[in-house]
Structure formats: C-alpha cells, structure tokens
Design brief:
about 120 residues; alpha+beta; Structural Genomics Hypothetical 15.5 Kd Protein In mrcA-pckA Intergenic Region, Chain A; about 15% strand; elongated
Length: about 120
C-alpha cells in the first residue's frame, strides 16, 4: 500500500521487527483483514495505519486513502517535524560543512546559558 517503495524493502522491515500489530512483530507472509490496525517504525517515529479495504492489485497513490487510513498520533507527527527541522541545522543547501567558527557559534547557541552571554544593557531607550 505504498508504505515502502518495494516489496523486498517491506519484507526486510518485517524481518527486522519494524512492523507490528498489537505489539506482536509481523512476518512478511501475514495477511490482513479489514479493520486491522498495525504500526510501522520508520526513522524516529512510529506510524499507525488502519486497513479500510483490501485489494489484489497495485494502487495509484491517489487511491491509497480509500484502502488505508493514517492514524498516527499528533505527538509522533510532531517528532517528525522536529527531526526535519533539526536536520536542516539552519544552513542553506550547498553551503558545505560548518567552519570552526560556525561550530563554536552553534555550541554557544545550544548551551543552557545562551541568554547569559547576550548583553541586554546596550539597548538604548
């Protein structure tokens, strides 16, 4: 159902324990019934899906919502968004690796006492 790009990648995910139903890891040969809910661990989050209908044929991407509903919790989607933002790192694409000065600035920014190092007394009223 287009969760994974190929059947072999989906089978590997099953063998590695990334796909589960009711807390039990699934084998690649497992058949689903209408109403089944299963979880897929991809990267930092766990997606939850519910089977609405079954099909024997491969589906186009636009038809997937008729057969499969994404029931992923908002907390998991927030983790995905945070991971996406953290992966960006604030550098423009094509800018290369951070320099030593960039790394030091990042460390200062990420430290707990970041606001202590800013001098607020310079502001004129």
């Amino acid at each position: 159902m287009r969760i994974y790009k190929t059947r072999s990648i989906a089978a590997d995910a099953c063998k590695n324990g990334r796909i589960a139903m009711n807390g039990v890891q699934l084998k690649p040969s497992r058949t689903f019934k209408v109403g089944d809910t299963f979880t897929v661990r991809k990267g930092p989050i766990t997606y939850t899906y519910r089977v609405l209908q079954l099909t024997e044929n491969r589906l186009g991407a636009k038809l997937v919502p008729e057969y499969l509903r994404d029931c992923t919790t908002p907390e998991q989607l927030e983790i995905l968004e945070l991971a996406r933002l953290a992966g960006n790192g604030g550098r423009d694409r094509g800018m290369g690796r951070p320099t030593k000065k960039d790394r030091r600035d990042i460390e200062v920014f990420m430290s707990d006492n970041y606001l202590d190092e800013i001098d607020f007394d310079d502001d004129e009223e």
